[in-house]
Amino acid sequence: MMNRMDMPKIYQTTPHKKKSFSFLLTSSILFLVMIPNSFAKTVDFPTHEITLNNGLTIIVREDHRAKMLTTQLWYHVGSADEPIGQTGISHVLEHLMFKGTKLSKTGEFSEAIYNLGGHDNAFTTKDYTAYYQTIHPDDLDIVFSYEADRMQNLIIDPAEFQKERNVVIEERQLRVDNRPISAAYEIFQHTAYAGSPYGQPIIGWQSDLQQLTVSMVENWYRTWYAPNNATLVVVGDVEPEQVFHLAKTHFEKITPNNLPNRQKTQGFSAKTSQNIQIPKVAKLPAIFLGFNVPSYKTAAQEHTSPTLAIIEVLLGNADNQQSGALVQNLLRDQNIVSSISASYNPWQRGDSLFSIFAVPNIQQKVTDNTIVAATLNQITQLKKGAFSDTDLSRAKTQIIARAIFEQDAIFEQAKIIGSLESLGLPWQTADQFIREVNS
Fold first, then answer.
1. Of the residues 128, 152, 202, 230, which has the maximum number of CB atoms within 10 A of its CB?
2. Please, which residues bridge with residue 22 across strands?
3. Closest C-alpha among 40, 42, 76 to residue 57
4. pTM higher than the cut 0.70
C-alpha cells in the first residue's frame, strides 16, 4: 500500500458533463501547515537506542500497557530516490518483498504472522519504505528471523515480478487514472514540485511501470536494502536488552552496502505563480491551491514549520472543519464552496507544500478565480492578525491533543520514531516540535 493523500471520493466519471480541475501555484513562502502526523511528549515511555556494527539502528520503546508489540523495519529509500524512467520501482519492490527468499517460499512470512494471530503489511512514501508487524511479544524472534532473511536473501522470480508489476499497474488505473480527482492531484504535485523528484508519483508513471525489468528491481534491492540504510523500531511490552540480543543474533551478520548518495529533493523555486486548468470528465470541479514552503528539516528558522502547522488549523484542515477561517467565511458565510480545507506536511527530507483543496458550490455558479481570490483574501487577513488569542490557543491545543492521542497506539509511536529517523531527524524531534508549537 502507499502512504499518500487519499483525496475525497466525490468525483465520478460521466460521459455527459466536463468540468475543470484548476490549481494555482506560487513559490511565495506564506504560511503553511498540515498537522504533522502529530507528535507530543512521549509520555514517559523509556526509549532505548543502539547501532550495530553493520550500521543498523535499533530503537526500542517500552510500553507495557498491553501484552503486544509492533515491529517496523524502515528502509531509507522511496520514490524521491528513483531515477527518471524507473518511477514506481520502490513500490513494486515493496510488493515483491512478500514473495520468496532463499529460505522461505512465497507468502510464508505473512502466513506465519497470521497463524500467530498477528498482522503485517508495508507502505511506500516519497522518502522511505517500511515493513511492519503487530504480534505477541513471545513471537519477536520469529519475526526477526524472517525480516533478516528478506533483507539479504530475496529471490525475484520473473513470473512473480510480472504478476506484481501488473497488480501495481492495475492499482494505478484504479486509484489514479480512473479517478479524475486523483489524476488532477497527480498533475498538481508534478507541477508544484518542479525540478524535484517529489513531483514523481509514488506509484509511478504508467509508461515507467510497463518498462521495469527484473534486473532493474534486483539492482534496486541490492543497492538500498542493507542494514546501514535501515532503522528497526520496536514498541510495546518488551525488555530492551532482549530485543537488542535478538536483533544482534539475526541482523548483525548481514553485510553493509556502499550506499550511493541520495537524490537531492530541492527543486526549482522561481518567484512566480502558475495557473493551470485541467479538463476532466467529472461531475464536480475542484481547485488545488499550493504554496512551496519549507519542511521542518529545510526551514531556516526553527519556528517556521510549527507556525505553518498552527496556520493550517487556523485556516481549517480536515480535522478542524468547525472553526477554520476558510470554512467559516467561504463555506458558511459566502456559501461559494461545498467543502474546503488546508494541509501541510512538515515531515519530508526536502521542501513541502502548503495546499488548499476546495470544491466549488456549483449551485452558486461561481468562477474558479472568485474562489481563489476569496481564499487568498483569507490568508491576507490572517497575515494581518485577523484571529484572536482564543483562536491561537485552540489551534495549538488541537495539535498537541492529536499528538497525545497518537501516542496511545504503539503502532503510531513506532511510526513517528521510524519516519523521523528515516528523514535524518532524531526521534526526539517529536517532542521538540511540540515545544516549538507551544512557544
1. 230
2. 277, 287
3. 76
4. yes
For residue 107, how many other CB atoms are within 10 A of its CB?
12
Q: Which three cell numbers stand for residue 264?
A: 537531492
Give the number of other CB atoms < 10 A from CB of residue 175: 17
From the DSSP assignment, how many helices (H) and strands (E) are in the chain? 14, 11
Catalytic residues: 94
Return the number of other C-beta atoms located less than 10 Å from residue 155's C-beta: 16
Distance CA 305, CA 311 (A): 10
Among 405, 431, 428, which residue's Cα sits nearest to residue 48?
428
Residues comprising the chain, all counted: 439
How many alpha carbons fall within 13 Å on the CB side of residue 149?
Answer: 19
Q: C-alpha 196: how far from its chain's center?
A: 16
Q: In whole angstroms, what is the distance from residue 99 CA to residue 104 CA? A: 9
pLDDT tens column, 343-357: 999 999 999 999 999
pLDDT digits (tens, 9 = 90+) for 317-374: 877 667 799 999 999 999 999 999 999 999 999 999 999 999 999 999 899 999 999 9
